[in-house]
Write a structure and sequence with these properties.
Length: 224
Amino acid sequence: MEFLAALISIVVINLVLSGDNAVVIAMASRNLSVRQQKLAIFWGSAGAIGLRVILTTGAVFLLKVPLLKAIGGALLVWIAVKLLKEDECEKDACKEASCLWDAIKTIIIADFLMSLDNVLAVAGASRGNVLLLIIGLAMSIPIIIYGSQIIVFLMKKFPLIIYVGAGILGWTAGEMIAGDQQVAAYFQRIMYILDLFLPALLTVFVVAFGYWLNLRQKKKLRET
């Protein structure tokens, strides 16, 4: 019963924390062909889950690295803007394969960055049982995969959702930076302001900057 209770806890935690991951996977694979999209979603999800297992087993040591979460948050801002840029893949096999690999890399890197803040919760629920941890995370793979496919479908039907997804990643990045121990210690007196405004500020920045980049790209295409 204890094993089952811990397993359920891990699955629930991963379900709660998988929203951002599903958004990243959907945004990274949305411009691929249907066949390549399925491959990117599957291998990106599998790689991300495998990396999360490794992260969780070494979470206590990893999270002691100075400014790791703050650096991760800054990198996530860059990834969010990159994913927001409109960049349709060409349909020749070589270019499509390159796009597939880029999508998989983006998914795994983004999941690594976002998992920095989540691994301790999963590690605690597993109670040091690595087998339990692997089983629990593996069970979350199909949920993330199907969730990503639903989001991709919605993004194709309603392109505005792409900006919503980028905004979610910007908010997550702000929470990561504000949640870093070194940042909190340095801005101790105004931390309540930072907690409130930094996620909102980065959300606006990601959406506005990505929108501006897309406008500039469309202008260049019209001029050529």
